[in-house]
Amino acid sequence: MLHCLQVTSDGQQMHNVELGRSGLKVSAMGIGMWQAGGAAWGKDVGDEEYVKTLVRAKELGINLVDTAEAYGYGHSEEVVGKAIKEIGRDQIVIATKVSGYHLRHDDVIRACEGSLKRLGVEEIDLYQIHWLEWSDLVPLKQAMKALEKLQVSGKIRAIGVSNFAVRDIQEANSLLSRTSISSNMVQYSLIHREIEEEVLPYCRKENITILAWSPLARGALTGKYSPENRPRDPAREDDVGRHIFSDSNLPLIMRLVSKLKEIGRARGKTPVQVALNWLMRDVGVVPVPGAKRPEQVEENAGAVGWSLSSSELHEIQRILEGLVLDHF
Predict the structure, then answer these.
(1) Which among 15, 40, 111, 317 could bridge 28 via Cys, Cβ 3.0 to 4.6 Å?
(2) Does residue 230 lie within any of the structural domains?
(3) What is the distance between the alpha carbons of residues 287 and 6, in angstroms, rounded to a whole number?
């Protein structure tokens, strides 16, 4: 995994890493735009604020922007497109996704054309398969051949996947003849560590970058929420959200957050910054937290440029070993 150091105008040190074997250089942290898709994460922020947030992210050295056609039926891509006009195409690494219900060969091509139009660009840097569970009846070969065709024609630069198990990555790679999978975007945080058993070791061995979505566990690791103050937006009241913020799990998660606060106080950092830095202890992992406002992306960016000590990592690990959450 190649990496270099970028120093922004703010003096912020942001490492850049190579995305798999693609040659693409992405910031050690990305920014996710699921929130910009609509009201699922609340109605408190408009498109203009999201554009300002993306502009601020670039000022801080964050160049990787992740979106998807499924986020607000393309609205998130349109918001990113507005930001690209302000920031400049060559300043952003665009990652977007084709939905699991568009994996037939011709559907992939059409979906990509739609994303290109909404984003207002001629080429997508990283085009990812969003999920597989809705596509069991469609041979994966159709999607992979379509993705390779798009790459050859210059519509996309690199191919990625999302929410893929090892067997799925292996199958996808076996169907490519000119390139290989560059990244796997999966749920990964201090309380979602399932990928550590198989997916993370495999991707590390195969030089496939892990893009960690929901690295703050839908906000549960920020310290903002408690049993007396639970989130009420739709995105955090779905099946996953209800489990994270359940009566049995949230008090346990708060014990972990207390440790993050303790470590953060000694370093002048927030729980958010400690939680994100923990993920970045592995150079093959790029967290992609969402952000609604410039001040949120500023806080996220404070997770780079330093490293947790071995003793701090040990303290966190001790908490994790005793963190037995209800299944979700």
Answers:
(1) 15
(2) no
(3) 17
Which sequence positions are flagged as catalytic?
Answer: 71
Query: Of 28, 7, 180, 172, nearest to 93 (Cα)?
Result: 28
pLDDT in tens, 258-267: 999 999 999 9
Nearest Cα neighbor of 81 from 298, 69, 286, 24 is: 69
Q: Is the pTM of this model over 0.70?
A: yes
Instruction: Report strand pairing: 3-7 vs 13-18.
Output: antiparallel
Total tally of structural domains belonging to the chain: 1
CA distance 10 to 5: 14
Residue 117's identity, in one-letter code, is K
- Whether 314 maps to a domain, the answer reads no
291-298 average pLDDT score? 96
The answer for residues whose C-beta is within 8 angstroms of residue 23's C-beta and 6 or more apart is: none
Residue 198 lies in a domain: yes
CA angle (50 as vertex; 49, 53 as ends), nearest 5: 90
CATH, residue 300 = 3.20.20.100
Helix ranges (DSSP H) in the chain? 47-59, 75-87, 105-119, 140-152, 166-174, 199-205, 239-244, 250-267, 271-279, 294-301, 310-321
Tokens in use for 98?
Answer: 């084709």
pLDDT interval class at 235 (50, 70, 90): low
Q: Tens digits of per-residue pLDDT, 155-170?
A: 999 999 999 999 999 9
Listing DSSP states for 76-118 in one string gives HHHHHHHHHHHH-GGG-EEEEEE-GGG-SHHHHHHHHHHHHHH
Residue 133 sits in which domain range? 3-218+270-308
